[in-house]
Amino acid sequence: MAFDGTTIAAVRKELSDSILGGRIYKIAQPEPDELLITIKTPEGQRKLYISASASLPLIYLTDENKPSPMTAPGFCMLLRKYVGNGRITAISQPGLERILFFDIEHLNELGDLCRKRLIVEIMGKHSNLILTDETGKILDSIKRVTHEKSSVREVLPGKEYVFPPSQDKKNPLLAEQADFLFSLHLQEGRRLQEFLYQTYTGISPVMAGEICTRAGLDASDSCQETTLENSERLFAAFEKTMQEVKAADFCPAIYYQKENNRIVDFAVLKMQQFQGLAAKPFPSVSALLEGFYQERDNAAHIRQKAQDMRKLVTNHIERCVKKKEIQL
Question: What does the DSSP 8-state code read for residue 222?
Answer without folding.
Answer: B
